[in-house]
Amino acid sequence: MSWLVFSYSLPSKGSSSRRVTLWRRLRRIGAIALSGVQILPERDDCLEGFQWLAQEVQQAQGEVLIMQVKLFQGMSDQTIIKKFHDIRTEDYQALELKITDLEKTFLSLKETENFTPIREGLEKLYKHYAEIRQIDFFDCPEHEKVASHLRQLNLALLPKDSVVIIAPKSINDYQDVNWFTRSQPHVDRLACIWLIRRFINPKAIIRYGKTPHEHEISFDIHEGDFQHKGNLCTFEVMVKSFGLEDHSFRIIAEIVHAIDLRDDLYLHPQIMGIDTLLRGWLLAGFSDTQLETHGIALFEGLYTACLKDSSLASQNPS
Questions:
Q1: Which residues form the domain of 235?
Q2: Least trusted range by pLDDT, from 84-88, 113-117, 180-184, 310-314
């Protein structure tokens, strides 16, 4: 594989704070030190990160060089990847300690006490986890333990009566049906539309209106075939009904739930940005067709991003 190498020097009489700031930014974009230089895997986002830092070095009257390297003499790709794993492991272990501390605080509270500070602390830890995952270029195994711990703590904060039983359905039984939902689809309906066109029938007919016709399969309407059930939004119900509960679907379902129900049960860092984008579409007066087109693109991109880790792991040697 190919690597990006960042070599720089700052004026000897320059401010020490500038050196510290640069080091912190290198750390923030995931670079590791190797024989006096900083390296990253050859990726567009990594190159962009180095290019921004190069501008800062030049503005400080320093010298900088960005290179592409195919092979480090005497050091295999597997050895370099292990160095990335080692540093990310340290990051995950430090985060794990913070999760454990928050969990101890939570367990010390009585059921009648206010859990808001716990949820706020958990939200910060979710954001910290997302930041590490963004620079975890080679899928460090330690992330699975941390993700599981975060999820367990989040589930512990859910209401005790939140478990809902969903009857399983076969995708094959929904190949030749017409679908119906309300006009001006927002987050829940848009996610359902993406699921229908992506995993059930790409050519499905989906009609928008006020009342479903006979034999149409309705979703996210009162007394529809697929609707809110218990504390689950319609998309969550459809995901469970069709047995699509893998890691990527779970993340998307939790994001949709958070935006649709606004009950603060899930704390993914993408929630605020997606919510703002969706509200902007409605304020812009997009038609149903425009909302569907944009919504499908949004959720396809989100789904692809959720699959990124596994795809990167399969492309790179370990």
A1: 171-310
A2: 310-314
Q: Is residue 317 part of a domain?
A: no
Global model pTM greater than 0.70: no
| Residue 11 and residue 62 share a domain | yes
Of 156, 184, 214, the residue that ends a domain is: 156
Pair (216, 284) in one structural domain = yes
Q: Could you read off the pLDDT of 222-243 as tens digits, one per residue?
A: 888 999 988 889 999 999 999 9
Kindly state whether residues 28 and 130 are assigned to the same domain. no
- pLDDT tens for each residue of 249-274: 989 999 999 899 887 778 788 898 99
- Are residue 297 and residue 223 in the same domain, yes or no? yes
296 plus 185 within the same structural domain: yes
Verify that 136 and 110 share a domain, yes or no: yes
Which of 53, 69, 85 marks a domain boundary?
69
Tokens of 25: 């930014």
